[in-house]
């Protein structure tokens, strides 16, 4: 009898455990994967998939914060494919050692030749990879091969961000043979083929099924070089409606609901079996005022609006308290940020006075917003009302994503509510992306020669204290010029089933699914 | 012989109409603001990259040249490539068009099954319970927005009673059947894959019911109105006076006269459903043409927009052609 009891006991334990380990991870996502090409992924779902399927040569190491949350430490770098690297005294040259014994998912060894090809393809394809290498790392030539596992990378100018620029998916390991096999004379880097196919794969998961606009099935790759995926099968269900994703999470059909809006989080608060993970985010929400379109070519008008905005109302009623106030061009998580030591506080009387002494003549200004972003309209309505309180008339214009992008990039928007998340948490990087004179991402056409010179000199400055002083000055100048009204820094939020652990928050807010496990 | 000539004549008109639709759609998509190049290149780009993409897409060419190139491609059977999905449009449509066709057909069958009998019954028994019910349902079906009804059905049958499967696409808890027609229900019957059959039928019930309720309402109204008119006509009164049985009067003498407007209404509704039912597809995560079209419009993905519009127009016109041919059979006066 006792023996039967023991057998039954172990059988139950076995069943429970096997059930835990066999449990798939089902994730509800908003849209299909746009491209699998590492060089040219400009859409968020692609990056999510690419980090699962491919491996970049360096990553941010995982650390535990005081609150027990796991985060990717953006101040440090850990080699995955790269075993070590050494910066030479000229500030331009890096000798990089490649870890021995690594392979792609198809068994092809990862060596200098393969890494060199990654650089070569990135430099020759029109995507984020080329942009990062040329504009951030100042690398315009592929590295020299020293031996099978050593390369020498030489930049044109010194940059403190050569290695950190390689942590993006664009620097992932791919199989050159497969790419070359599908190259044509019109398309020598096989970008067409790569859009829908995987060249070797090097990440923790393999894609085993993809039904367009329905589902994507991943299976863990046992040969992965890092921590192997604890959940063996991951299924992405494409559910366009965020309200349905929230409902399906509540019903237990899916385990994670990605891309939810504030309304859905509100509906999930306190739901049985659901937890909402919150993490400080580097995402900046700002009201852009175009410095070359009247009346915002007058700095007094921009300052007046910055004083008029009711920041607390937006934090409380749009973000339900799940956001921090943004005070300047850097996120509060950036160690260079001045925080609330600088910036504008709501002061309608001051706003009115400034507007009165400005060149504003009572004309109606336009706040243009992307119609696909629900929170933008909520903010725009509040800003419209704040502007009315200082005597400024504004109308709201909703634009489809394509029209919005075209007009934004063309610097033709008079005012807009937009966001910015610098995937590399560095002041040089974020300013050179958005607030340097004439750059592509400077949508509000802001220009200050002193800020430009700080950005230019900042690339070569490796002394931390000197850099800090430089960027404090840059922040003060920008805040004074007020090209943006710095609104909020909403927390990153992700809704998932209770019992699912392992979420690690990275600066670029892209999840690495292999960390997840069932508790 | 005259029928063959008639069909040939109608097909020529159909081609001209599709040609006209293609010109209008092409001009509208190109003239409206929203250059896709800016979305394609993303944030980390420069003007030279944008220019290279514009050049690759041929958007810098004069509009007439762009149209000529598009038509030349189209005549060779190439619908172009979607920049958003990276696939040839024909490949994208090969999975989405059957999904819409399947949903539209099942919804239409369900709509016919409830709307026509109820329409007949309410016209025969005026001021009865069935008449009031028909009036109520037809009013409700026309007034209720599709997305609201879809959400309501999900909340009641999936979240509330837990008898409907989760509204996630075309199939759950089973693999799709081997693709023959692309329509899961038909393919699972052909391949005798009963697991897929049950799973795909279970998934389609709620979206098809939503559409059946909203599209059945106008059908019910048309059936009821025309049937009342016919039942009041002189020849029906004569038939009654001659002692012809009631059932025979309704189904042999009155109903065939209603078939003409009813079948026209069915054609209109079916054509509308085939164009893609965006909101229902969105709520039920149904990977059909409607959602594909809207995603493409939002991202100025011209080739899929053109293909969807041309395909919808062609299906609409083909449905009309088939209805007219059916009229030749059911109404001898039209021959």
How would you characterize the overall build of this protein?
The complex is a heterodimer of chains A (519) and B (335). Helices cover 32% and strands 22% of the residues of chain A. By secondary structure, chain A is of the alpha+beta class. In chain A, helix 7 runs parallel beside helix 8 (262-268), helix 9 (299-308) runs antiparallel to helix 11 and helix 15 runs antiparallel to helix 16. Chain A starts with a helix and ends with a strand. Chain B has 335 residues and is mainly α. Chain B has 14 helices and no strands. In chain B, helix 5 packs antiparallel against helix 11 (246-274). The longest helix of chain B has 38 residues, at 194-231. At the A-B interface, helix 4, helix 6, helix 7 and helix 13 of A face helix 2, helix 3, helix 5, helix 7 and helix 13 of B.
The count of DSSP E runs of length 2 or more, i.e. the number of strands of chain A, is: 24
N- and C-termini, Cα separation of chain A: 33 Å
In N-to-C order, the SSE pattern of chain B is HHHHHHHHHHHHHH
Helix-and-strand structural type of chain A: alpha+beta
- First-residue to last-residue Cα separation of chain B: 12 Å
Radius of gyration of chain A: 25 Å
> The biggest beta sheet of chain A, please?
7 strands, mixed
Enumerate the spans of chain B where pLDDT stays under 50 for 5 or more consecutive residues: none
| Share of residues in helices of chain B | over 70%
Structural class of chain B, please?
Answer: mainly alpha
Number of strands of chain B: 0
Figure out the total of helices of chain A.
16
Quick recap of the structure?
Chain A contains 16 helices and 24 strands.
Identify the notable features of this structure and list them briefly:
heterodimer, A: alpha+beta, 24 strands, 32% helix, B: 335 residues, 76% helix
């Amino acid at each position: 009898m006792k023996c039967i009891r023991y057998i039954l006991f172990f059988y139950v334990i076995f069943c429970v455990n096997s059930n835990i380990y066999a449990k798939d991870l089902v994730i509800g996502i908003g849209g299909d994967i746009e491209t699998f090409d590492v060089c040219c992924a400009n859409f968020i779902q692609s990056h999510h998939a690419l980090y699962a399927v491919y491996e970049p040569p360096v990553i941010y190491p995982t650390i535990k914060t005081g609150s027990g949350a796991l985060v990717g430490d953006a101040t440090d770098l850990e080699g995955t494919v790269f075993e070590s690297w050494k910066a030479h005294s000229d500030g331009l040259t890096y000798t990089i050692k490649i870890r021995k014994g690594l392979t792609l998912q198809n068994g092809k060894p990862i060596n200098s030749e393969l890494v060199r090809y990654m650089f070569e393809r990135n430099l020759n394809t029109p995507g984020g990879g080329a942009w990062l290498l040329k504009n951030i790392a100042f690398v315009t030539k592929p590295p020299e091969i020293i031996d099978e596992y050593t390369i020498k990378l030489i930049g044109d100018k010194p940059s403190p961000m050569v290695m950190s620029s390689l942590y993006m998916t664009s620097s992932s390991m791919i199989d050159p043979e497969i790419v070359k096999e599908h190259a044509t004379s019109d398309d020598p880097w096989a970008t067409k083929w790569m859009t829908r196919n995987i060249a070797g794969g090097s990440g923790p998961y393999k894609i085993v099924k993809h039904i367009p606009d329905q589902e994507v099935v991943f299976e863990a790759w046992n040969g992965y070089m890092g921590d192997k995926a604890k959940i063996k099968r991951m299924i992405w269900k494409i559910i366009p409606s965020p309200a349905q994703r929230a409902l399906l999470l509540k019903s237990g059909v899916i385990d994670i609901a990605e891309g939810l809006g504030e309304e859905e989080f509100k509906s999930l608060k306190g739901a049985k079996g659901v937890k909402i993970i919150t993490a400080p985010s580097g995402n900046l929400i700002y009201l852009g005022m175009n410095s070359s379109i009247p009346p915002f070519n007058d700095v007094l008008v921009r300052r007046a609006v910055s004083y008029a905005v009711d920041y607390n109302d937006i934090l409380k009623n749009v973000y339900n308290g799940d956001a921090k106030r943004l005070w300047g061009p850097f996120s509060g998580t950036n160690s260079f940020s001045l925080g609330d030591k600088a910036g504008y506080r709501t002061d309608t009387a001051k706003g009115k006075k400034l507007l009165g002494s400005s060149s504003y003549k009572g004309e109606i200004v336009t706040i243009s917003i992307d119609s696909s972003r629900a929170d933008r309209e909520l903010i725009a309505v509040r800003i419209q009302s704040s502007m009315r309180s200082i005597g400024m008339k504004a109308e709201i214009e909703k634009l489809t994503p394509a029209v919005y992008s075209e007009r934004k990039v063309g610097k033709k928007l008079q005012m807009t509510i937009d966001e910015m998340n610098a995937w590399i948490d560095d002041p040089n990087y974020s300013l050179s992306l958005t607030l340097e004179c004439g750059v592509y991402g400077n949508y509000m056409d802001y220009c200050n020669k002193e800020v430009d010179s700080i950005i230019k000199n900042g690339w070569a400055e490796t002394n931390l204290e000197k850099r800090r002083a430089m960027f404090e000055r840059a922040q003060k100048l920008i805040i004074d010029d007020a090209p943006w009204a710095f609104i909020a820094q909403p927390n990153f939020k992700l809704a998932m089933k209770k019992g699912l652990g392992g979420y690690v928050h990275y600066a670029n807010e892209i999840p690495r699914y292999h960390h997840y496990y069932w508790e | 012989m005259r029928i063959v000539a008639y069909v040939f004549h109608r097909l020529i008109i159909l081609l001209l109409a599709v040609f006209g639709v293609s010109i209008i759609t092409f001009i509208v998509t190109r003239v409206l603001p929203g250059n896709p190049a800016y979305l394609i290149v993303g944030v980390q780009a420069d003007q030279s990259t944008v220019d290279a993409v514009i050049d690759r897409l041929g958007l810098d060419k004069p509009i007439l040249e762009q149209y000529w190139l598009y038509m030349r491609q189209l005549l060779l059977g190439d619908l172009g490539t979607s920049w958003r999905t990276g696939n040839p449009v024909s490949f994208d449509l090969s999975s989405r068009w059957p999904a819409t066709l399947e949903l539209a057909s099942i919804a239409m069958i369900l709509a016919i099954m409830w709307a026509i009998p109820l329409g007949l019954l309410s016209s025969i028994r005026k001021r009865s319970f069935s008449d009031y019910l028909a009036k109520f349902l037809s009013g409700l079906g026309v007034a209720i927005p599709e997305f609201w009804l879809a959400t309501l059905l999900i909340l009641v049958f999936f979240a509330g009673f837990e008898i409907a499967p989760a509204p996630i696409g075309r199939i759950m808890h089973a693999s799709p059947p081997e693709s023959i027609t692309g329509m899961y229900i038909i393919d699972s019957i052909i391949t005798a894959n009963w697991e897929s059959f049950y799973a795909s039928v279970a998934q389609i019930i709620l979206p098809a019911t939503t559409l059946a309720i909203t599209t059945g309402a106008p059908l019910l109204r048309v059936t009821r109105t025309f049937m009342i008119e016919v039942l009041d006509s002189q020849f029906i009164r004569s038939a009654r006076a001659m002692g012809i049985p009631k059932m025979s009067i309704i189904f042999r003498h009155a109903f065939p006269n209603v078939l003409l407007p009813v079948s026209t209404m069915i054609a209109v509704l079916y054509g509308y459903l085939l164009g893609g039912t965006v909101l229902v597809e969105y709520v039920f995560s149904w990977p059909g043409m409607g959602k594909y079209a809207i995603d493409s419009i939002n991202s100025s993905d011209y080739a899929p927009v053109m293909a969807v519009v041309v395909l919808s127009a062609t299906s609409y016109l083909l449905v009309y052609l088939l209805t007219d041919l059916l009229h030749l059979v059911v109404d001898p006066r039209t021959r």
